């Protein structure tokens, strides 16, 4: 068994803004009523995201520029290096798409970070999702079942830490050894009696892991 892994959600956890909000705010005002429908349970997460990502209507250079404008937690690049230097492996686990995550990782010079997410690609001025219903991590609702990914990683590592911020993260939080929760995830886990450490930033996560002697 390998020693430990740190798995983080991307949108709202590593990034300070969800990519779908950037698209809605910039290109797709119709996404606001759609967001309400989704939150009311009238749409699956993956259908909402697919519709938003296919409503950008810009050349790829512009889309990449927009992706790189996403603000991220400033401490993330150094936190990832610290995890890797201390014998841990860092993973990103996202129910968005790897299309924009890979651009961000490259932009910040972040290396050796595998990404579990919905496959995405640029075509005809939009971002499209390629969902494989036969994939072992497939979920009808999210495209990717985060709990399955964490359970699989736990077969390889002694300890799996997880960080997230919203409803899709409430499921893997039940499987991870310890979850760091931001924003809405804190109340969701509290309601379900799932233990967690409340945080606002990766700096706080690092301080916690330092005190434990993990990093």
UniProtKB/TrEMBL annotation:
Record carries keyword Hydrolase: yes
MF GO annotations: metal ion binding; phosphatase activity
Keyword field: Hydrolase, Magnesium, Metal-binding
EC identifiers of the protein: 3.1.3.-
Domain of life of the source: Bacteria
Required cofactor names: Mg(2+)
Full protein name: MtnX-like HAD-IB family phosphatase
Organism of origin: Guptibacillus hwajinpoensis
């Amino acid at each position: 068994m390998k020693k430990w892994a740190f798995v983080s959600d991307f949108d709202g956890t590593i990034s300070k803004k969800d990519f779908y909000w950037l698209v809605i705010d910039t290109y797709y005002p119709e996404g606001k009523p759609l967001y309400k429908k989704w939150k009311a349970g009238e749409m699956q997460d993956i259908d909402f995201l697919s519709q938003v990502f296919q409503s950008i209507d810009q050349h790829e250079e512009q889309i990449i520029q927009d992706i790189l404008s996403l603000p991220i937690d400033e401490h993330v690049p150094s936190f990832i290096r610290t995890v890797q230097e201390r014998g841990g492996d860092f993973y990103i686990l996202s129910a968005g798409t790897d299309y924009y995550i890979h651009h961000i990782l490259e932009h910040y010079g972040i290396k050796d970070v595998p990404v579990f997410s919905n496959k995405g690609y640029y075509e005809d001025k939009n971002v499209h999702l390629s969902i494989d219903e036969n994939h072992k991590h497939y979920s009808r609702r999210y495209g990717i079942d985060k709990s399955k990914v964490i359970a699989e990683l736990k077969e390889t590592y002694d300890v799996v830490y997880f960080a997230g911020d919203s409803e899709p993260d409430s499921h893997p939080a039940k499987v991870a050894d310890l979850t760091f929760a931001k924003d809405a995830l804190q109340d969701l886990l509290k309601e379900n009696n799932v233990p967690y450490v409340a945080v606002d930033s990766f700096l706080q996560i690092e301080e916690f892991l330092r005190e434990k002697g993990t990093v």
